[in-house]
Amino acid sequence: MTPRLCGSILSTRLDGCLSLADAIALLRSNIASRGIGKRGESVLRRIEVELEPTDLLRWLAAQRPGMRSFFRNREGTLTSAGVGCACEFISWDDPQLCEWVNRSAADCAQTNNPSDPLFHSSAFFDCDALGRHAPEWSGFDRSRIVLPLIELRKTHETTLAVNLIGDTDAVLHALEQCEVPVEHLALPRGLHLTADGDLVRWADGIDAALGAIASGSIEKVVLARTRGYSAFESINPCAILAALMEEEPSAFHFMVEQVSGCAFIGASPERLFRRIGNQIHSEAVAGTCGRGSDSASDDSLAGRLLASDKNRREHEIVIRRIEAVLSPMVEVLQRNDSPTVMRLRHVQHLMTTASGLLKAGIDDARIVRELHPTPAVCGWPVEESREFIRRHEGMCRGLYCGVVGVTSASRSEFSVAIRTAVIVGTDMTAYAGAGIVRGSDADAEWLETERKLSSFDAIVRSSSDRQPHPLDTRHGPHHLESHPQLHPRMAAGS
Asked: What are 351-380's pLDDT values in tens digits?
């Protein structure tokens, strides 16, 4: 149980810029020599030291599995890797969480310390949809906000920090167990495709969605599918994440691990919101097309995307929702007059930004609660679309399309968890979705999800030990592009 914070949050910066080994030794000796951390004490002490340049993901991969987290924002200006748990909350509604963050804000304002405690957070897309049919999500809490016991953070510098509450034994033990970064992150042997989405079920879902849209009960709904992979050995989530970072460098990168053997990883292009002080910035990312083989065809596709009535309507639903949520929270909300094109390795998206200055008393908990889920991953109206998804999608999304991010007194970064996969032992399930509006076509939406899964397929292809497998459905009837004749309804675009 998280202790109630009774005193100040005390931050200490030790002198020097050290190697990882020397920094660990300095932290241990500093904690021991001060005799701090009495049992039952409810004061948070953050002690940090600057490190020589260190690869945070390779460091995280070297640590014992079980409670690890990683988050890197899209611009690469903030990366945080955490191990262990100094304190945790299971809901944004927990009043103690607000107390901790507010106390941190007050203390940091007094000390002008930029390295305030940074909480790692994750939340399911739909906390009410989890059932016994979703064993892949049994290792994850539906909502969790954690302050790591040990954190490596990279901004304009790299720091190693411990977050100490009460007795020092747990921190000293964690520092003793801390390993140096691994030299290489290897993909698992024999990584191959084992299962793909059901084309018949997909087409039926699109028909049901278009029927609901025609009846006026919903305006848009996002439907998702999965693709399954397996390996001959346990899949190292840090290795998959490293490969995703190479595939999609201009994305949010994250990993959530709460028990050994289960991890959620992703490379999402979509920001829910960023807060620096009282400045907030959000984005609508909706409307998709592929990439061209050269710059001319790329520009042509982008032009068609900008001119597409279907994609512009899908996009406008998302930005309208963001405006409606944020307008009461800010002094003046500013947004782009028209969308621009965000270009990723495999797809292009329409994007519109919105920003403003938050009014007094508006905290991250309220913003997350009211802004998520956006129509970009759910639909519109939100509750009606979410109920449609529960009835027709046939799976539990878990953290897919949920929220992953970091929050502190001075800044927060939250991403919408798309382009993601859940890893359980030797199995990996990747997710992709498409927004359905009036005029959507089952063939086109399926191919859109194919493009969104391309990064995971590329990782499989790059696995040096990959061998043909009898259940590899990329060579069987589930692959739409290779075998359209095996599904006449889809091939005809009906």
From this structure: 999 999 999 999 999 999 999 999 999 999
